[in-house]
């Protein structure tokens, strides 16, 4: 459930500050004059084009999971669907144990996002999203599934057990949307999301205990929430450890993408095709430039073009079972948008700061602010924006580890 832009990543060596034209500077210029061509020497450009996979977007083993997700059979095929779920900074902090009659889902805390998620809120939500994909895949492959959350007392890494038995084959619209769901960070078209669509997404929670979605869609709410999103993004970048932990998962070259099969890439930043290609040809940017780019995008693109914000709520946002259930609802909503012509972007900077405040004993600036956005008696779990897609720029594939690499 990646929320942060050009920070999400395993850092590569960056040029010294101010050396040449930074990617951030280029991205700003390209937005104003997309037709500009930067000539830096044919040999250097050719090498960087190869090294950064300029002409290989979505190719290679790091993307095979998207093409193979529905080809298999047996319980492992359910995991192939599960691994396409959104998760924090595309860290994919999950592992599966597969038997003929059950699948166990575990948290992989070695893949946590550190100071961005000090109490595992986003990690558990990501596990819940993977669980939802798995449960949607079960009837599509002829299984009846019964789920138990937190099945092993005293083992916090054991998130869920899904018991399988024979059942009728049935493919749902949400299941069919799994390979089409992508976090869309591009600008959205203007225009509100119809109330009937918001109601349909709210109804996806009807059979889930505790989890609900609260919508913020009128102009006053949009301005207030957008301002808070920008302030939280700025606060994350000022927190050195949060900044470092975010940048650690950014994959800036082709070899790193294919080797790790995780993290965020330039392809997933919602930039136009021309701007993405040109950015790949430039030297790798620094963490500071990546942070500035993310704040700029949050202020000038994401919050400016949001048609509505949604906040998934639960009674107790510190309860892991409720976090898992909230993740299931979040994934249902995201799949519904993919099936119904809308876009969605996860935006967790407010809750990331709220948890960091709690960890460090700071004043509850962001914790209190986001709590004030949701109904009394509920607690905010995760937030996102939705809107009408303007192009396909925000729907490029993210790298994924295939099922065979996450089955223990």
List keywords for this structure.
408 residues, five-stranded antiparallel β-sheet, alpha+beta, 9 strands, four-stranded antiparallel β-sheet, globular, 16 helices
Give structural notes.
With 408 residues, the chain is of the alpha+beta class. Helix content is 41%, strand content 14%. The chain has 16 helices and 9 strands. The protein has helices spanning 23-32, 42-51, 64-68, 75-82, 121-140, 173-176, 195-202, 219-238, 240-247, 254-260, 273-281, 287-302, 320-339, 349-360, 365-371, 403-406; strands spanning 94-98, 102-107, 143-149, 158-166, 188-189, 212-216, 308-314, 343-346, 379-389. Strands 5, 6, 7, 8 and 9 form a 5-stranded antiparallel sheet that branches. Strand 3 and strand 4 (158-166) form a beta hairpin. Helix 5 (121-140) crosses helix 13 and helix 8 (219-238) crosses helix 14. The longest helix has 20 residues, at 121-140. The chain is globular and about 50 Å long. The model is unreliable at 1-42 (pLDDT under 50).
Uncertain residue segments: 1-42
- The outline comes out as globular
Q: What's the number of helices?
A: 16
* Radius of gyration, CA atoms, in whole angstroms: 20 Å
- Mean of residue pLDDT values: 89
Main sheet? 5 strands, antiparallel
Helix content: 40-55%
What is the beta-strand fraction? Answer: 5-15%
Total beta strands: 9
Q: Which secondary-structure class do the elements indicate?
A: alpha+beta
Report how far apart the termini are.
23 Å
Helix-strand string: HHHHEEHEEHEHEHHHHHEHEHHEH
């Amino acid at each position: 459930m990646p929320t942060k832009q050009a920070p999400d990543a395993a850092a590569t060596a960056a040029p010294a500050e101010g050396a040449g034209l930074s990617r951030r500077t280029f991205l700003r210029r390209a937005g104003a004059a997309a037709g500009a061509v930067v000539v830096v020497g044919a040999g250097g450009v050719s090498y960087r084009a190869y090294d950064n996979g300029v002409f290989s977007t979505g190719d290679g083993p790091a993307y095979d999971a998207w093409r193979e997700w529905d080809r298999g059979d047996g319980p492992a095929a359910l995991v192939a669907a599960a691994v396409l779920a959104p998760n924090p900074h595309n860290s994919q902090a999950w592992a599966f144990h597969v038997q003929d009659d059950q699948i166990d889902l575990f948290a992989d805390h070695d893949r946590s996002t550190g100071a961005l998620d000090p109490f595992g809120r986003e990690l558990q939500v990501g596990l819940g999203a993977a669980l939802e994909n798995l449960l949607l895949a079960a009837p599509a492959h002829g299984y009846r599934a019964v789920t138990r959350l937190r099945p092993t007392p005293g083992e916090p890494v054991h998130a869920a057990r899904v018991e399988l038995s024979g059942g009728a084959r049935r493919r749902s619209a949400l299941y069919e949307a799994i390979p089409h769901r992508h976090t869309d960070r591009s600008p959205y078209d203007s225009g509100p999301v119809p109330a009937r669509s918001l109601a349909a997404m709210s109804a996806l929670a009807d059979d889930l205990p505790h989890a609900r979605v609260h919508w913020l869609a009128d102009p006053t709410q949009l301005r207030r929430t957008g301002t808070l999103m920008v302030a939280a993004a700025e606060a994350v970048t000022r927190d050195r450890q949060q900044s470092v932990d975010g940048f650690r998962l950014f994959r800036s070259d082709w070899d790193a993408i294919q080797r790790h099969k995780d993290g965020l890439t330039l392809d997933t930043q919602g930039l136009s095709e021309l701007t993405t290609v040109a950015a790949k040809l430039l030297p790798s940017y620094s963490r500071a430039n990546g942070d500035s780019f993310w704040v700029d995008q949050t202020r000038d693109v994401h919050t400016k073009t949001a048609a509505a914000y949604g906040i998934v709520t639960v009674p107790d946002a510190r309860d892991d079972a409720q976090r898992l259930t909230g993740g299931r609802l979040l994934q249902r909503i995201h799949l519904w948008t993919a099936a119904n012509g809308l876009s969605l972007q996860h935006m967790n900077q407010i809750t990331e700061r709220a948890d960091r405040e709690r960890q460090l004993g700071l004043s509850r600036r962001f914790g209190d602010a986001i709590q004030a956005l949701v109904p009394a008696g509920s607690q905010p779990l995760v937030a996102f924006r939705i809107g009408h897609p303007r192009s396909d720029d925000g729907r490029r594939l993210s790298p994924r580890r295939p099922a065979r690499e996450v089955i223990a």
